[in-house]
Amino acid sequence: MSVQTIRVYPDSVLRRKSLLVNEISGSVHELADNLIHTLTWANGVGLAAPQIGELLRVVAIDPAVVDSSKEPLCIINPEIVEERGVQVAEEGCLSIPGIYESLERPSTVVVKGVNLKDRPIELELHDILARAISHEIDHLEGILFIDRLSPLRRALLRSKLKDLREDRNPQHSQLF
Fold first, then answer.
1. Is 136 considered catalytic here?
2. Where are the alpha helices (DSSP H) in 54-150?
């Protein structure tokens, strides 16, 4: 297990749909360990496999943000089966550093998937964890939180997003 490089906008892997995990193999366990290790290192609330370059339907979330006795966990093939309520809060993304915007998400979600022991799980998540799992499942579909903003809000972010694109272009990098 190791800390992985977090892919940053406009990396094309962030725009691709992830594949279902059909078998909980050693490589899936390694991916889960790497996701949790990277999430912890980055001090994030959630991280999806595409954010470290793996197009598999695996996400990690860290419930310690609301309960310090909880450990980070991975959900394989997560699917939201129920949404309730509405919350509007500032949201950011480890793959879009420095950009935070208010965004509407469900205040409660019920998510189903499987754990690393290949057993079905169902979790009811509230508030920030509902936001996090919704955000991470979007990543599995190639959707970024900025895609959910109004056209006006996206237009206002155009220069910041352009700066991110240029920062990732080797022609614009400074060599020291």
1. yes
2. 127-140
Q: How many Cα atoms are found within 13 Å in the side-chain-facing hemisphere of 99? A: 23
Neighbours of 122 (CB within 10 A): 10
Task: Say whether pTM exceeds 0.90.
Answer: yes
Nearest to 14 by CA among 49, 62, 64, 65: 49
Structural contact between residues 87 and 125, judged by C-beta atoms closer than 8 angstroms = no
> Given a cut of 90, is residue 164 above it in pLDDT?
no
62 in helix, strand or coil?
A: coil
Q: Which of 54, 91, 101, 136 is catalytic?
A: 136
Which of the listed CATH numbers 3.90.45.10, 3.20.20.190, 3.40.50.10490, 3.40.140.10 matches domain 12-169?
Answer: 3.90.45.10
